[in-house]
Protein 1
Amino acid sequence: MSPSGGGRAAYSIVTNQPFAKQGSRPAGPVLGVETSCDETGVAVFDRARGLLAHTLYSQIRMHADYGGVVPELASRDHVRKLLPLVEETLKRAGLGVADLGGVAYTAGPGLVGALLVGATVARSLAWALGLPAIGVHHMEGHLLAPLLEADPPAPPFVALLVSGGHSMLIEVGAIGRYRLLGDTLDDAAGEAFDKTAKLMDLPYPGGPALAKLAEQGHPGAFRFSRPMTDRPGLDFSFSGLKTQVLLAWQASDRSGQTRADIARAFEDAIVETLAIKCRRALAATGARSLVVAGGVGANRRLRAALAEAGAKEGFRTYFPRPEFCTDNGAMIALAGALRLEAGQLESAAIKVQPRWDLASLPPVA
Ligand code: KG4
Ligand code: ZN
């Protein structure tokens, strides 16, 4: 649920000189910390041995009473949960803090207070242990999550990143070399799921609830448009869909079956729109591999539709397992480990960027 964009506003609460030498590589597993929104995620990833442990605490139940994420409550809950989760994760990995070789944390985009909790804990831990540390771009974490799986993709590929705050198509020339092909002009795909679910009185977060309800819907009972597929281009616009749903819902008998039928039609519209744009992006770049990540990447119908299109049209599809589509610490530990391995680290300043352009990142190699 994080804003995108090229704004450069950065929040810094300490300014310091680098404490670890530029270019020093992590001599051991990397601890990853994710606190950009409403999930506290911690993981330990080792370049040679892979993912050693990961834990996640979701604040969903706390925010559900308010129908959405309350930023200040999110920050406070990260404060409560983060250190116990770090201890638990190390225990599960069979490691002590002295075994760690580096620390990675989400530095943006996200909610500024929530980001600062993770950044402060991660930076302090790294400083106390004399370890290199790096702030990771949350969307790079999502994009690299399929590398946690047994059969990982290799660049070049096209990535569809669909979460609560973003709907982006990215050309990945190499790890760290990202070109934005398409973006959302208004609501992100996950946001569209959440808002649509809310207006049909489904509980927060609406994405998974709406997808579950859609399973019982009759395909074709309602039909909504496939926005912006009638013209060239790779941008998305999903806010009009929710208005179409609202009008259909208000004019209906509002029965349980109708709600399921509308949910199905909405899901079909999003899935088909995303699939059309993915095909276009693959054709435009000549890439033969498609990575799908971010919370909406957990959607079963989206995964099935893209896998089927790939099988028919000769491109390969890569998805993280559903628990690594939504926010998690494993993707941050992995992305941080790759960058630390490449000798990238920053000064000890605790700095986060609520808005951060993915294409501004330095290449890894
Ligand atoms: O990546 P994520 O966990 O957090 C952000 O970085 O935003 O994505 C959360 C979004 C929410 O909008 C949620 O409703 C949506 O992903 N989502 C789904 C599903 N699971 C999560 N949307 C559709 N179908 C799902 N199965
Ligand atoms: Zn996310």
Protein 2
Amino acid sequence: MPESVVIIGSGPAGHTAAVYAARANLKPVMFEGYSTGGIPGGQLMTTTEVENYPGFPQGIQGPELMEALRKQSLRFGTRIFTEDVTRVDLKTRPFTVASSERTVQASALIIATGATARRLNLPGEARLWTKGMSACAVCDGALPVFRNKPLVVVGGGDSACEESTFLTKFASKVYVVHRRDQFRASKIMQERVFKNPKIEVIWNTVVEDVVGDDAVSAVRLKDVKTGKTRNLACGGVFYAIGFDPNTAVFKGQLELDADGYVVTQPGTTQTSVPGVFACGDVQDKHYRQAVTAAGSGCMAALDCERWLADER
Ligand code: NAP
């Protein structure tokens, strides 16, 4: 007998889908991942304070929130395998989901594998990550550690423009460091940056390293036109250099957009394959918040439950 529903991924989207699916008596199986796409629990596992997830007036540590979500999934009977999915077959039903340890058949599938924020992998990065470095200004920018300090945003897309504008609420000044001489961001987002007196754009420049002992104190910049390097003092560095959706295993099996995100029908979590649903950042390049991921996880479980009921 196939499982009713297999959930791949264990961030807020996957666990919310699991809680709803389990409470609908679908006895979900979850592959929470092992190393593909980061660590089980998703991007919140590498965040510190989460202050914008409703219900936690004092904030909560990212890993603590994920542990609570995982416990909630287990409480309602979700069976969790700490394994990466290495192969899926969505062309025949029941669907097949395989890891190095097992192969599972499923009547329906919920994809919640998330996206991985790109990093520059600078020499000082491993040491200073979460000590003044982040890939999410909206998540971390309001933390006291970043207040009234000069901050650096790296990138030239919509995220870099949006996040640098957001950071001006807290920072003494925001530098946007971009490797070319023009942004790829939409005109309206660019204009917001250019109009903001607290933002200075440093064109044609790359970040070579991040400097600091226990916390970020500067970045080393290199002008790509002149080759000149210099240190720029700052209290934080935010990467906004794009995301890679974790969809490699689904390539060729369901519709992905040009950037590799799973395409869902507007207003639903239905993918191009009936019975396969997607939620969270793997299908959302716009909002990317823990709470929106959780919300879409709920939608995926409800869509899945209704689809299974119609199939029977
Ligand atoms: P993006 O559009 O892919 O932009 C990434 C930026 O980072 C580019 O400017 C790129 O430079 C730069 N970059 C990439 N790799 C780099 C590297 N190794 N070193 C230095 N710079 C590097 O990513 P995004 O801004 O996150 O946006 C992703 C998608 O979400 C887009 O479709 C965007 O429109 C959408 N989005 C929309 C909103 C909104 O509408 N509110 C907000 C955020 C994002 P180059 O320009 O030289 O390639």
Protein 3
Amino acid sequence: MSRKKDWPGVIEYYREFLPVTDKTPLISLQEGNTPLIPAENLRRELKLTPRLFLKYEGANPTGSFKDRGMTMAISKAVEAGASAVICASTGNTSASAAAYSCRAGLKCFVLVPEGNIALGKLAQALVHGAEVIQIKGDFDVALKLVLEIVEKHPVVLVNSLNPYRIEGQKSGAFEVVDSLGHAPCYQCMPVGNAGNITAYWRGYKEYKEKGRSESLPKMLGFQAEGSAPIVRGEVVKDPQTLATAIKIGNPASWKTAEAARDESGGLIDMVSDARILEAYHHLASLEGVFVEPASAASLAGLIKLQQDGYFKGEDAARDVVLILTGHGLKDPGRAIEEVKPPDAIEAELGAVLSKMKLE
Ligand code: F0G
């Protein structure tokens, strides 16, 4: 019997680590238990020294890591008697909020930056019946508006400023340790609003405190160069990157991301869009793992650090886990732009064989 078949979702599986009681109604899509895929091809082809593993969060029910936090946030909202939730989003949070809300019978409002949300994510939010409000402004403005709304109206915030989101998302760290049998030496991940790096660090620390692991990883976070407020040490007014998921100039969890970086002895660096795209292609063509551009920042960052000689001594051959936060199908526009689809040919054997160079 496969483990997946019995998997109850992150709340039920990690109940003892989460703020739930027998009275908390569980709103779950059996999220979590995502694959930790060894990446020997990447290691060999790119001459990377550490042992590489890909935590493929695109395998979650709505195609991103957000489901881990959303199952908690929506379950707790229902427990508290809420009837509506709201979030600002670059897309994945809104897709996840929409899915879990309709399952729970909650009204879901999402504010998204017009023209800066990948098509798959917009489609998800709409298909799940959320009230999608596109604003003529960026994510940072959307979040500001949402925070004003929740202050005065009976609508529950489900952005990662909602503490239950972080609680659920820390389950990603638990799974990495459970799969590897120990904590990795390094963990690479994209950083946008900075909730996920906060959550993973909390997860690793709690697991160690409870005796489930003996060590802690160095947290290596990566922002896009045109959208790197934490790296630059100041708010970015007009953030730019093709990785729209992390196009954020003023991250809500800025301080806790810095704490994760400093306490772990890691770093938060930035990678160019060109490097992100290069990593996007490497993941797809060398390992068969299709991610959205923001997720490729994990590998882009690893490659950059390897080239800079960051990995030294014994640590250079230890385990690195790359968190691949979202599925490639989220952003079909980017994929098609990258790999021009072929023109149609005659539906005739000779023409097909000729195309295959088999005549
Ligand atoms: N990767 C993907 C695919 C994301 O969607 C996000 C954030 C991140 C990485 C960064 O995670 O914000 O916790 O640092 N997406 C949010 C959203 C902002 O609205 O979907 P973070």
